[in-house]
Structures are given as structure tokens and as C-alpha cells.
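Can't paste images in this forum, so I'm doing it all in text. The chain is below; anyone willing to post the predicted C-alpha cells underneath?
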Amino acid sequence: MSLNVRKAAIVGCGFVGSASAFALMNSGLFSEIVLIDADMNKAEGEALDISHGLPFARPMKIYAGDYSDISDAYVVIVTAGAGQKPGETRLDLVKKNVGIFKSIIPQIAQYNKEGILLIVANPVDILTYAAVKLSGFPENRVFGSGTVLDTARLKYLLGEHLAVDNRSVHAFIIGEHGDSEIAAWSSANVSGIPLNNFCEMRGHFHHEAAMQRIAESVKNSAYEIIEKKRATYYGIAMSVKRICEAIVRDEKSIMPVSCIQNDEVYGINGVALSMPAIVGKNGVETGVPIELSREEQKALRESADTLRAVIADVLGDE
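Text version of the structure:
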């Protein structure tokens, strides 16, 4: 069956899945979205609730289904998994969610062998790696939301710090989506002006202290939100929408998505983590090697080692 570029499937209708469905409905990117959940009533309820807003949006079909309904979906978004609890790290979730993926991913691959798998469940880097191995899909067509949201948080906080439109801030969070993530300060700029120069233009001179505070703030954002409202879902839903835009419109946008690295520049191989990559209709087209300081390169390798150890522990030789 040929794929329908205007059709998406969302597997998992918890907070993240349903918020992503709502964001995608509002985007007008798709004419059809199928929602799949272990609890069929939950999927039906979310589909009905969102459908009732369609007279205020664009014509489309959104409904609850099963895995056979994804056979022609261009993008399959996997948000299913146990949620992160207060005090729990993303890596604490890994064993539970790899178990869930061992059930889900083979069912997706049974019905759809040509689409793009977008992994959003946490810990996203480990689950992206697991999804590649469990699906048998080419590596370019299986990738995770990675540090797209962390990068948006960094740009937002820098925009606040500098009192400038955050869309003019160009900076990346790279590595693990989690505690070993790295703010790539050495390549950060505001509309082409090196970050430190722009900071001084705006009256900020304590660069090291500010960078440390902002990087910590980004890293702890999810923990803070979970503590205050038990889950994070709006920011990641907007990230899912943005990634889907790049795919459906073949934008070839540069985003820090999580994919298996075959990196000749920094020597990181056989582990999924986030580095800037060109994203379009075929998924991840190619990585984009950004300039990193020696310290950032070291931190990136350490982040990769952290993830590699978890993969060895949980997945073994799979």
C-alpha cells in the first residue's frame, strides 16, 4: 500500500499523545490522524473531543483505531510509555518503557514498513535505539524528538535574558535528552553575532555564571514542571508539530533530533543521541557537524558513554 503523506498515526493517548494530536489538528498538516492506545475508550474519547473543534479548524478526519489502521500513515508518532514521576530521572523509566516498546514496535512494523517512526516517549534516546533494532527500519526513518524541546527552552531563556526575540537566537542543546545534555555555547549566536558579544551589547558581562545558570535551568525544566503539574506536554506537543512540518513539507530544516550516530567528526558511533541534522520527507537526511570546544566534545562523548552503558544493560545484544 502506498503511503498517504497527509496521514499520521499517534500510538499512546496520554498527556503527550493527546496534546500532540491537538497541536497537529490545529496545524492543518494532516487530513487524517488515527489514535491508538491500549485503552480504546481513551483513544475514542480524545478523538471525539478533538473532532468537536473541527468546525473551528480545517476539514480532517481524526479517529481511534488499531495497528491495521496505520498501514498507509506517513508518520507514526510513538508517545506510549510509563510517565516520569516526581523524583524519577528519565533513565529510571528505561526498563519499563523498553518492555512496552517490545510489544508496540513489532506491531507497527507488521503493518507499515515504509513510513517514518518518530519516537517521543522517554528516555527518548534509548527508546529510539530500541525502535531501530525492533522495527528493522533504516536508521534515517527512525528518530526521536531528542533535544528539540530542550533547544527551544534554551532559546526561550536566552531570549528572556537578552530581551530579544527568541527566534533570533541560534543555539543547540546536544547529547542525551536528560541529565548529561550539553549546551553547545561555542556555536551559539544571535542573528550571526557571537553570543558573548551580544550579551555585552545588552549589558551582561558575567558570561560563565549566566551560561551555567541558564544551562541548569534548561536541564531542570522538566523536573520543575513535573513537580508543579505532574507532567509536561504542551512544549513537547509543539515540538512534535514542528518536526512533522519539516517532514511533510520536506523543509530540510536543521533540528537536534535523536538518531543513531555514525559520526566521523566526533567519533561517536552506535548510540542514539541528539546532534543537529537535516530533516525532510525521508526523515534524517544527514548530520550537521557544528563547531564544539574541546570541553563540549569531551562532554558529548561522556553523554554517549552514559547512554551506551544503559543500552548494554537493558538491551544487551538485541
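The mean pLDDT is 94. Residues 4-144 form a domain with the Rossmann fold fold (CATH 3.40.50.720).
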